[in-house]
Design goal:
With 457 residues, the protein is of the alpha+beta class. The protein folds into four domains: 157 residues, no CATH class; 84 residues, no CATH class; 81 residues, Immunoglobulin-like; 92 residues, Immunoglobulins (Immunoglobulin-like). Helices cover 15% and strands 34% of the residues. The strands form seven sheets. Strands 15, 17, 18, 20, 21, 23 and 26 form a seven-stranded mixed β-sheet that branches.
């Protein structure tokens, strides 16, 4: 018998300039620097690191990174980020199935590379009006921010962080600063039916000489970038008391995550996200660097030659073999599409004959098909899978009628061999239109495909 793991939303060149400050701050944080590999549970010496300590380290990878837009046009809530003005923390954008979440779909360094390319999707794409609560093509929201910190392989939306929707979590009995602990989350319920909810994470507790809590630091993702607020105990208590907020405590992280563990997947990759990236100054891709593209989608190479070295040729390789050499490309964008899946690189031959650093990207195929007719809640049904140079990892189901009706099925090796995933009967509990996402990953990131299906009784 095939056993499936699933969780229900109802049951149970040059380093980036800002990174010197960020990495210096991490020297005081032993949890992250002790990490070895992409396992968030062990230090290099083999001893366990408290997950709360890791949660703080991981939250701050995203909240303390510094970056500066190189040109105008990067969208944010109510306008655009100002060119040349340094920002702290990754941008807020609910990219859903269209854009890509920083840390889950792409490396942080991919975002930082895109920042340095004035022709990247950060400046040329705007999700406003296309995707609700989104502007920037790359971003984070409160739920993907806390889920990343809490070492999940896929984000839990904010309203599913606590009881009764998850096991291994409780409402803190004393709702006050004196009871708060690092790793606790603060949940703000929707102000109205169908409205948005919010989640924050406690990252620091300050006590006086008598052991009394004097400050509670809370970090969160909200417009325009992540926010870090060190509240006095009185201010924290007032914050909790407003808008029916509740302080939650995860008592068993593995129970709370279930099969949704970061260490089971290639992403999030905390080692890569915490390392100092070297951003290519000669050529960058429209999606930055170190990134996957769907097969057939245009890849736009921006030959920038920012140091004025002169460029003789742009060379594109697949698997180490030359696919094309474009002589005298000049400065500007060169666009190509690729029908063969594989891992690619692109570098420039400079005027003096030396080679620039290479950009890395993958061309992948990820697709699925649904039944032609509506499906019944009371019957199992199948999703057919196809992929190339990418592993299908998650089927995400989301009811459009019930904001709590979200379910993930983790694709097994047997599913991949059979080319299909079986959706159990009664997994979906709401009739009406349901979004079906297929998520795949390879060493450069994740791709998402979405289709909709009608669910009937």
């Amino acid at each position: 018998m095939m056993h499936r793991r699933f969780f229900s939303g109802i049951a149970g060149c040059r380093p980036h300039a800002g990174w010197s400050v960020f990495l210096a701050a991490l020297l005081c944080s032993p949890g992250l620097l002790a990490q070895s590999g992409n396992n968030p549970g062990k230090a290099s010496g083999g001893h366990s690191i408290p997950w709360q300590e890791k949660a703080v380290d991981y939250a701050r990878i995203m909240s303390r990174v510094k970056w500066t837009p190189v040109t105008a046009g990067m969208p944010r809530r109510g306008g655009h980020f100002e060119a040349g003005k340094e920002q702290t923390g990754v941008p807020y954008s609910s990219v859903k199935s269209v854009g890509r979440y920083i840390g889950f779909d792409i490396f942080l360094k991919t975002f930082l590379a895109a920042v340095e390319n004035p022709q990247s999707v950060l400046y040329t794409e705007n999700l406003y009006g296309k995707v609700s609560n989104a502007e920037c093509y790359y971003g984070k929201v409160c739920s993907s921010y806390t889920s990343y910190a809490l070492q999940c392989g896929f984000w839990y939306v904010s309203r599913l962080h606590g009881p009764p929707h998850r096991d291994g979590v409780i409402v803190v009995e004393q709702q006050s600063a004196q009871a708060a602990k690092v790793g606790d989350v603060i949940y703000t319920p929707p102000a109205s039916k169908g409205g948005g909810s919010h989640v924050e994470i406690v990252t620091e507790i300050t006590r006086n000489s008598e052991g009394k809590v004097t400050y509670v630091r809370v970090e969160e993702s909200r417009p325009q970038t992540t926010k870090d607020t060190n509240r006095s105990s009185e201010s924290f208590n007032s914050h909790l008391a407003a808008r029916n907020r509740e302080l939650y405590r995860i008592t068993d992280l593995d129970t709370w995550r279930g099969s949704n563990k970061a260490e089971s997947f290639l992403f999030p990759n905390y080692d890569e996200d915490s390392a100092t990236p070297k951003i290519n100054r000669v050529v960058l891709l429209d999606r930055g660097d170190w990134v996957p593209y769907p097969k057939g989608q245009a890849v736009k190479f921006n030959v920038m030659d920012r140091d004025g070295q002169g460029v003789r040729a742009l060379v594109i390789k697949r698997g180490g073999k030359v696919v094309e050499e474009i002589r005298q490309p000049g400065k500007g964008v060169v666009e190509r599409s690729f029908s063969i899946c594989g891992d690619y690189t692109a570098h420039c031959v400079l005027k003096d004959g030396s080679l620039s650093a290479a950009c890395e990207f993958a061309v992948c195929d990820l697709d699925f098909s649904l039944p032609d007719e509506a499906v019944s809640m009371g019957e199992a049904w199948e999703i057919q899978l196809t992929s190339d140079n990418m592993k299908a990892i998650i089927v995400h189901l989301m009811s459009t009628q019930n904001s709590y009706g979200r379910y993930n099925l983790f694709v097994t090796e047997e599913d991949r061999r059979n080319g299909k995933v079986v959706i159990p009967a009664r997994l979906i509990r709401d009739k009406g239109k349901t979004q079906v996402w297929l998520i795949g990953e390879n060493r450069y990131g994740r791709l998402k495909q979405r289709r909709d299906i009608l669910v009937v009784e």
